[in-house]
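Replying to the earlier thread about multi-chain prediction with a worked example.

Input:
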Amino acid sequence: NAGVTQTPKFQVLKTGQSMTLQCAQDMNHNSMYWYRQDPGMGLRLIYYSASEGTTDKGEVPNGYNVSRLNKREFSLRLESAAPSQTSVYFCASSDWAYNEQFFGPGTRLTVL
Amino acid sequence: KNEVEQSPQNLTAQEGEFITINCSYSVGISALHWLQQHPGGGIVSLFMLSSGKKKHGRLIATINIQEKHSSLHITASHPRDSAVYICAVVGGATNKLIFGTGTLLAVQP
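Result:
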């Protein structure tokens, strides 16, 4: 089992460009999450999906959109990237809401 | 003031020492997580607990709901334990995960 996979691992964007971060899990988990991690601030929840077909805003949703494509996949889209979105992005999943979290390897995004 | 506070922020220990990392929170919670982030960046879940104590190998996690405090203990520490340890609670006004900023542990041989 691959667990939680994320693509890409690294990305550099120019201000105003758009991109989608992909996440997939093969553990048949119901809940999936997107976090960002910034130096000195810890992990912060961007969006959350309790189950297929549902999404909910987290602590820092502005500038992002998500799609729970099916039970396996949860994507994060930046419509118009800004330098403030430079961060490391982690996807995670759990069997039920906020149970033990399984994290992907992260995506390091730089917005110039 | 952050809803989840960890102490110390940085910790250096000698191999073999007993280590304690503390987590205090100011909101009502339904559960608390301890996570480990390796130097390469990967994050793994160590414990999820809502009461009492859990043990896994050399790691022990305790929680005191009344005092709103949890501790993570590492016995017989080893250089491979060097990592950032993160406390997170499920709770607060939105009943979502709230993370501490982490404790950076360095275990020297």
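Chain B touches chain A at residues 30-31, 33, 35, 41-45, 48, 86, 88, 90, 94, 96-97, 99-102 (CB under 8 Å).

Feel free to reuse this layout for your own posts.
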